[in-house]
Write a structure and sequence with these properties.
By secondary structure, the chain is an alpha+beta fold. It has helices at residues 15-45, 51-77, 89-106, 114-124, 127-149, 156-243, 247-273, 285-302, 322-343, 372-375, 389-399, 423-430; strands at 308-314, 347-354, 358-365, 403-408, 414-421. The chain folds into two domains: 15-200, no CATH class; 283-431, Histidine kinase-like ATPase, C-terminal domain (Heat Shock Protein 90), CATH 3.30.565.10. It is built from twelve helices and five strands.
């Protein structure tokens, strides 16, 4: 039916939606029943008048038009066809009403079909048009019944019956229209909710992908990239030693290359397993940092660079969660790598202190320094993939609600200061 179609196809039925569906089904059944009764009375009371078959044929045409509109509307509502019959709704209603008028002129038995038609007029037409049309149809019903009664003047029941029926149909139709609008609003709200959920899921997925990429980039930069960079530089130094005939120095440097490659391989394997440092699996953070300083001093010496690297510890060591330990170790690795590759320093000191409410780590070097305000070194990745260190470090520290400060000036060395709150650890343990 082109009028009151199912407004919420495929949606969980809310109370208003269920009422709309019941009214819609009742309207269909009522129209079919009234039409069937009228045709049956016409055929049984017509005697031998052959004109009754013409009226019956017209009734079947009316049934076919009504059924065709209903089927097209239903198919469009469930999405099985792209043809939208709503644009032809008024035309369809005009044909149905015209056929009913023809039948009413032939037999007053078809008068009661006016009441389901009232619902269609209220649904498909503007109220200012539907109400006068219903009044005209009610007058036609009164005239048909008066003509069928054979009375010289219409009886009171003949007048009041159709009027009260029309009034009841109008009130019910307006209520139906309100329910229909509410059901349509529920459908739109449900569609909007689905769309919003889909957009939110896509946004969360994209954010998760970006966060994972950032995490992988930090891990690769702080482990594999630094190790590979050290291997390349040490191999070049060993090659130069061979060219100069200094085989002993070349052998020492190749041994450093081998050790660095072995450590890098362990990092790569652990990277695949869980992105935690193998240096922290069998030892404490303090011991891992002490070994890091010793390894940095050894590797720079193998390059022919005199760098003294010390580790200092202050306070009572507290048990830290794995993210804290990894962040501090990666910060020390990245900072010492910058000292080794860029600072031209002769001394570097890594200091870790537990101060009750926070754990701090300072990495100091007496190298050439730089102007942080002017260069913002490390805050942007370079086109060759380097320059990611400080940005990676900032992201790690920020994820733990900590702070990172960089102090440096040309010729005055550099200090990287990291603060991580321990109250977050306490709250996590309590939870």
């Amino acid at each position: 039916m082109l009028g009151p179609a199912d407004p919420l196809s495929g949606l969980d039925a809310a109370p208003s939606v269920a009422i709309v569906r019941v009214l819609r089904l009742t309207l269909h059944v009522g129209f079919a029943a009234l039409l069937g009764v009228a045709v049956l009375r016409l055929l049984l009371s017509g005697g031998g008048d052959p004109i009754r078959y013409a009226w019956a044929g017209t009734a079947f045409v009316l049934a076919g038009v009504y059924l065709a509109g209903t089927i097209m509307e239903k198919r469009f509502a469930v999405g099985s066809t792209g043809f939208d019959p709503h644009r032809y709704g008024v035309l369809w209603l005009g044909i149905v009403t015209a056929l009913w008028a023809v039948l009413l002129a032939g037999s007053s038995d078809f008068a009661w079909l006016a009441f389901p038609l009232f619902f269609l007029h209220l649904h498909l037409l503007p109220r200012r048009i539907a109400l006068p049309t219903i009044a005209v149809m009610t007058a036609a019903v009164i005239a048909a019944q008066w003509a069928a009664s054979g009375l010289p003047a219409p009886h009171l029941a003949i007048v009041l019956g159709p009027i009260f029926g029309a009034a009841f149909a109008v009130v019910t139709g307006l209520a139906y229209r309100a329910l229909y609008r509410e059901a349509a609003n529920q459908r739109r709200a449900a569609d909007e909710l689905r769309r919003t959920r889909a957009e939110l899921a896509a946004s969360q997925h994209d954010a998760g992908v970006l966060a994972e990429r950032g995490r992988l980039a930090r891990e690769i930069h702080d482990t594999l990239a630094q190790g590979l960079s050290s291997i390349v530089l040490m191999a070049r130094a060993a090659e130069k030693s061979l060219a100069d005939g200094d085989t002993a120095t070349a052998a020492a440097r190749f041994a450093t290359v081998q050790q660095t490659a072995s450590d890098n391989l362990a990092e790569a394997r652990n990277f695949v397993r869980g992105l935690s440092s193998p240096q922290l699996q069998e030892t404490s953070l303090v011991e891992a940092l002490r070994r890091l300083c010793e390894g940095t001093e050894t590797s720079t010496a193998a390059r022919g660079i005199a760098l003294r690297c010390r580790f200092e510890f202050d306070g009572d060591a507290a048990e830290l969660p794995q993210p804290y330990r990894v962040t501090l170790l990666r910060a020390a690795q990245a900072s010492l790598a910058n000292v080794r590759d860029h600072a031209k320093a002769s001394n570097a000191v890594v200091t870790v202190a537990f101060l009750g409410t926070e754990v701090t780590m300072d990495i100091y070097d007496d190298g050439v320094g730089f102007d942080p305000a002017g260069s913002r070194a490390g805050t942007r990745a370079r086109t060759d993939g380097s320059g990611f260190g400080l940005r990676s470090l900032q992201e790690r520290v920020r994820a733990l609600k900590g702070s990172l400060e960089l102090e440096s000036s040309p010729g005055e060395g550099t200090v990287v200061a990291i603060r991580l709150p321990l109250d977050e650890v306490s709250e996590s343990e309590e939870r």
